[in-house]
Each structure stands twice: as C-alpha cells, then as structure tokens.
Amino acid sequence: MTQSKAEIAATLDAAAKEHTAIQQLALQDHFSLAEAYDIQAMSIDRRIDRGEVITGYKLGFTSKAKMEQMGVHEIIWGRLTDAMAIDNGGQMNSEQFIHPRVEPEIAFLVKRDIDRELSLSNIGDCIDKMAGALEVIDSRYMDFKFSLADVVADNCSSSAYVIGEWHELNDRVGSIDLEMVINQDQLVVGNSSAILGSPLNALVEISKIMARNKMVIPAGAILLAGAATAASYIHPGDQIRARFDGLGEVSLSVE
Ligand code: OOG
Ligand code: MG
C-alpha cells in the first residue's frame, strides 16, 4: 500500500465531511477486502471522535437489482450514525452531498443484544419491529464508480436514512410490495422478496457477519436489509415518497 490504512481512512472521512468526490483508491493502494473493513472502522472512528454515535448497521448488495446496477456481486456491510438520521417527512440539504441517490429499504429494530448467529426460527427473540425506510447513498468516489474494496472502505456509500413508522415484525415481511415515486413519477416498483428471498435472510446474514467479527449488535440498533430495487439519483427540489404495503409511507424532500 502506498498510503497507510489510517491515511486512507482520513482521506475518505474528509471526502464525506467536505462532500468532495475523490479518485478510487483500491487500485493504486492495493488494499484487500479485509483491509477495506479496517479502513471503514477507522474512518467511522473519526466521526465518533467528533461526537457521532453508531445507531445501527446496513447491508448492501442483497438484491440482484443492486448488484447489477453497481457491478458488485458480494454482500457488504456498513455502519449507520445518528448524523445520518432524517425524520420521516424531513428534508435533506443537497449541498451536504456529492451525487446522492435514494433507494427504498426495509428497516428492523433490535430489541435484545444480538451476540450470536441468528436463524430464521429465532430472529423474533432479538428483533421485534420492522418499518419501511429510505436510504440515501452518496459514494465518495467520482462518478459513483468503485470496486468491492473501495465501496467497503467508503462505509458502503452510507450517507442518510429515513425510517417510517415501526410495526410489529410479522411473516408478511418476506413479500411486501413497495414503490418509490419521485415528483409524482412512479420510479421503481419492487417487492421485499428481492432481498435474499426475504429480508429475514438479510438479518441472519448480518448476525453471522457480526459473530464472525466478534461484534455485538446492541438493543435499540437499526438494521437496514439492503435495497430491493436499483437506486435513483436525486436533485434539489425533488420530493421522494415510498409506499410499503402494510407499513405505510416514508418521504423525504431535497432542498
Ligand atoms: C453501495 C451501497 C449498497 C444497498 O442497499 O444495496 C446499498 C452503493 O450502491 O453505493 O446500500
Ligand atoms: Mg442501501
């Protein structure tokens, strides 16, 4: 590596903070996927040092639509912080982003610490609520183009999220119809089954990842299962509305 992991983490953190796109890094710096996760942790530590708090975790590339859109075919995970949270119906200031995209997601609320691998039969012990959500992703790389290691180091493009009203977790989670509309134009239609067959499989997956990394997901954490559809670019003045069958509506406007 020409730069140390700490230097790369500082570069990515600065790009996010100053919302300025940078060149992809993994090609010139030759870091591995494992090193990319170290870089992600170091870059998020810089946010924590500035007072941000981890609010949960997200998965990426859990649907074919996302994998095909971005050309990355492996499940990835990243961290969410309180600075990324926007109230349902709230606004985001486009000046704080580089080239934001939005995607509809299913969110879960952890009720009991997840300190081991979950299976489909015991998910309910640790997770009791689900909600429709919007995730705003904003790659720090020019043209939103990256390799697997690059996107992981960049905290999986995480930049903001909006959570709808919480509902009790139930079996319908595996086949929720959803649609996202931007400025009255219906943009994407999908179903939660596109997420690994069911977002419940994403929860099993994230519990395995955390167990492998000897990390505990604490009670109160939010989990995003990954988008069921491709993401859409958003611009100042846009009004985004996502509808989730049985879970209500989640909306966001772009200033
Ligand atoms: C990476 C993040 C992927 C998802 O839901 O699949 C992701 C990206 O597309 O920039 O958040
Ligand atoms: Mg996402």
Written description of the protein model:
The chain has 255 residues and is α+β, with helices and mostly antiparallel strands. It has seven helices and 14 strands. The strands form two sheets. Strands 1, 2, 3, 5, 6, 7, 8, 11 and 12 form a nine-stranded mixed sheet that branches. Strands 4-14-13-9-10 form a five-stranded mixed sheet, with no helix packed on it. Helix 1 packs across helix 3. It is globular, with a radius of gyration of 17 Å. Bound molecules: 2-oxoadipic acid (OOG) and magnesium ion. Magnesium ion binds next to strand 1, strand 5 and strand 6.
Mean pLDDT across all residues, rounded? 97
Helix content: 25-40%
Radius of gyration: 17 Å
| Multimerization state | single chain
Q: Segments where pLDDT lies below 50 for 5+ residues?
A: none
Order of helices and strands: HHHEHEEEEHEHEEEEHEEEE
Hetero ligands:
2-oxoadipic acid, magnesium ion
Structural class: alpha+beta
Number of strands: 14
- Globally, the shape reads globular
Largest sheet: 9 strands, mixed
Distance between the termini: 40 Å
Q: Roughly what fraction of the amino acids lie in strands?
A: 25-35%
Number of helices: 7
Describe the SSE topology.
Layout (H helix, E strand, L loop, with lengths): L4 H13 L8 H4 L3 H17 L4 E7 L3 H7 L5 E6 L3 E2 L4 E2 L8 E10 L12 H4 E11 L10 H6 L4 E6 L3 E2 L8 E6 L2 E7 L7 H14 L9 E3 L7 E2 L5 E6 L3 E7 L1
Parallel strand pairs: 1-11, 3-7, 4-14
Antiparallel strand pairs: 1-2, 5-6, 5-11, 5-12, 6-7, 6-8, 9-10, 9-13, 13-14
Helix pairs in contact: 1-3
